[in-house]
Write a structure and sequence with these properties.
Elements: H1 3-12, H2 14-29, E1 33-35, E2 49-57, E3 60-68, H3 79-82, H4 93-101, E4 129-137, E5 143-154, H5 164-178, H6 184-193
Antiparallel strand pairs: 1-5, 2-3, 4-5
Helix pairs in contact: 1-2, 5-6
């Protein structure tokens, strides 16, 4: 979905516009998105298409913003077409479930925006660009959304890239390896062998 289509939807749906501006502002403050500059001469640039998904449960409405790296021009490849998927590093589901039932205590956690916590190399960030209303500051330093359109890009790893699951898994393994001396059993048995990660955009 291009930005013109998004703009039209935002004008027609106040709830969607509020969600859009709140999430965009939050990611800019947390430095997950940054305003891209000097991209005119870049030969490695790709604009992510996106759309909003609406979920209704029990009278409550929840929105999710989805960035699509599989969209492409008619005669060109998508970003996912040219990315390497990497190895599948997660353990088998059945084996993981059996080990889960074999211990008196199991740990379940929620890693919020785990992909975005992985920083991209600056040379690759133009490949995850997108258009959005710009975020500015007033005289008191308070950020707000303007009506001007700017070119933003991810600083972290977007959800939905072909390589994202591999990079997530290999990062967790690397962190576990760094802690093997201090937490030997936990790092080896629970993270390298019995850790299962499932992800959703957010």
């Amino acid at each position: 979905m291009n930005f013109r289509t998004i703009h039209m939807r935002l004008q027609q749906d106040d709830a969607l516009r509020t969600f859009y501006e709140k999430q965009m502002l939050d990611h800019v403050i947390k430095e997950k998105f940054e305003l891209a500059t000097n991209t005119e001469n870049s030969f490695r640039i790709y604009y992510l298409q996106r759309h909003a998904v609406k979920n209704e449960r029990g009278g409550n409405i929840k929105w999710r913003k989805i960035f699509d790296a599989s969209s492409c021009e008619r005669k060109g490849p998508s970003l996912n077409d040219v990315l390497e998927m990497g190895l599948y590093l997660l353990p088998e589901v059945l084996a993981c479930l059996l080990r889960f039932r074999g211990h008196p205590v199991s740990v379940i956690g929620d890693m919020k925006q785990d992909f975005l916590q992985l920083s991209q190399d600056r040379r690759d960030r133009d490949l995850t660009s997108f258009f959005s209303y710009t975020i500015s500051k007033d005289d008191k330093g308070i950020r707000y959304t303007t009506h001007e359109v700017g070119n933003y890009r991810f600083t972290g790893l977007p959800f939905g890239l072909t390589c994202s699951p591999f990079l997530q898994s290999v990062t967790v393994r690397e962190l576990a390896t760094m802690c093997t001396e201090e937490y030997t059993n936990t790092a080896h048995c629970y993270i390298k062998v019995s850790l299962w990660i499932t992800s959703a955009p957010g």
